[in-house]
């Protein structure tokens, strides 16, 4: 926890909705709600704890067609929707019959989060972090990022009319650099990988007052936004939990919060508390969690990333140990796939379902395929996979594989000679 983030700002009543405290994920110690992110007892990570009132399906269904329909389940005030924000969420859940048939699955759905305002799931977590930033009286909206988060933070700050400062590795994909810089905030390229960028952000958060690094010192509130993926999947399936979910793993926060979301829905009686398995997907060039899972370890050994899946290239994932816990508790698996398999996965999803995913989605599709082929995933169980971003952000991954089949003169004869009838 940084003293620099602790301001004299008075937090209004109800600023964090039904959130009542922060709880340490390591030792369970409780802390008050505020600009805190590390346990004072053991320095473990903090997350938001709640006291939920009775919440009904009808109450949720009457809400807006974005994540604020789940306001009672998030650490945000009841009037959160009245403040300028990008209004993410309520993205498509696609019945992927073609892909299911090709892979030999009985029932497969794709939760397509490329439909969010900046075309990735990061708009969800950033919206939650923006609310906390405003309620805590912080003035600079910032993040270290592998790309998608940079887009989301810059866009949300522009919409809210506050200053943004975004830090990225200098070798980030060009489309992600452009789609961050276009929003007019301050974009800083750092000579290093994501873990170097994240270390710098942590140092700045510890020294600069009034800065909200969404995935550092505002992380307890930020990460809760990923729960809305679980809420939407369950609601879109007719208020039930799927039997299997395959999720890409970078920091691991998305996977652990989807699990938390399903658990909360069951406890609140919004769905039947049925069993489910959660699977994690990584690229082999940055697969510390998958390796720890295979080795039977409870800790994750950091690695130096070397993969085309840059949005998942976090060599020292903060939530890695908790990902292992979720996979083992639910009976799932953490698996990894090569860069070549990642590109195959991108093309497979595009060819079968008309969805152009970024490299992270290629990791997820390729991992799904591998899990089926190795007998680690039940092909007869209803399965959901997460498409976390848009392929237009990672064009280089497929650029040398796709293009015109043939080039012909502008004549019908040429068309016929080419055998295109």
UniProtKB/TrEMBL annotation:
Modified residues (N6-(pyridoxal phosphate)lysine): 122
GO biological process assignments: isoleucine biosynthetic process; L-serine catabolic process; L-threonine catabolic process; threonine biosynthetic process
SUPFAM superfamilies hit by this protein: Tryptophan synthase beta subunit-like PLP-dependent enzymes
GO molecular function: L-serine ammonia-lyase activity; threonine deaminase activity; threonine synthase activity
Ranges where the Tryptophan synthase beta chain-like PALP domain occurs: 88-389
Enzyme class, spelled out: lyase
Cofactor: pyridoxal 5'-phosphate
EC number: 4.2.3.1
Short name of one Pfam family: PALP
Superkingdom field: Bacteria
NCBIfam families: thrC (TIGR00260)
Family: Belongs to the threonine synthase family.
Protein name: Threonine synthase
Organism lineage: Bacteria, Bacillati, Actinomycetota, Actinomycetes, Propionibacteriales
